Amino acid sequence: MLYSHRSTVLHAYASSLPDSLDISAEGAVMPVVPMFHVNGWGLPYSCTLNGAKLVLPGPKMDGVNLYELIESEQVTMTAGVPTVWMMLLQHCEKNHLKMRSLKRVIVGGSAAPESMIDKLAEHGAELRQLWGMTELSPCGTTSTPKFKHRGADEQTLRNLHTKQGRPIFGVQIRIVDDEGKALPHDGVAFGNLQVKGPWVLGQYFRRDQDDSHTPDGWFNTGDVVTIDPDGYMKITDRTKDVIKSGGEWISSIELENILVGHPAVAEAAAIGVFHPKWDERPLMVVVLKPGCSASRDELIAFYEGKIAKWWTPDDVAFVDELPHTATGKLQKMKLREMFKDYQWAN
What are the structural domain ranges in the chain? Predict the structure, then answer.
């Protein structure tokens, strides 16, 4: 990616707004994302622009060090991928610790499970989801409530925060089917997400011709999403990660978010594995919490009543750890390679 000075400044302004990341000189912000990864989500610029205290965690981004840094520096807002917050929350739970200064946690990179919203709330911290991409500098949407949500019940607000949110100022979003036909924003139809905006890339560096944009200038993100009537977007999957079973799509993200709500599960990944009858079926790859145990049947039964029956994973594989990128994202490609010869039980 090649960014212009103009787009970086515009992005810093827009991402600072109350309905974006809400950054001001009153805050102490700790980005738990490397600066080489899409400019540290733009936080080095937006924090400096507003005069916010900027706390940089260095290379030791484990639960112990992050907790000590939050407490010693009185961090009010932090940002990172869900894996980071799972480690931090597990450290706090294990050692009966409370985070007293933290008010807001920005989660991006992949969807946050509903259980994480509840656990952060126990520390007095609000979870706010962010969706973005390297191609957007990165901010595109955030899950901030509207005036109409004032006084809403707890479940309504929780449902709101499980979505990746509505566009911040300057960004437009829409969904289309595989033929490029616009789909309704009804919260039900899901399709390919396209975006426009002043910090959305115009073209890839030194690549003159590609299919990254439509003829009318919309950028193809590669995400499969729904958009509700209030403009809130929810990612159902990446195009390359969606599980295609019997001609229908299954969201790997939803399967993962449900299973990490099980008290014995530390991490879970859903991948599509070849099936002779259904093309693909979901396999859950699971890391259990230290000292905890759970059986395959117990974890599969955990889905009962939460999803359509045909979405239910066919099997569970237990591993010691899942492969992650340097920024904490799951490496689904590596998992699919690991289980490419997997055989379903008869």
Answer: 5-167, 172-238, 243-338
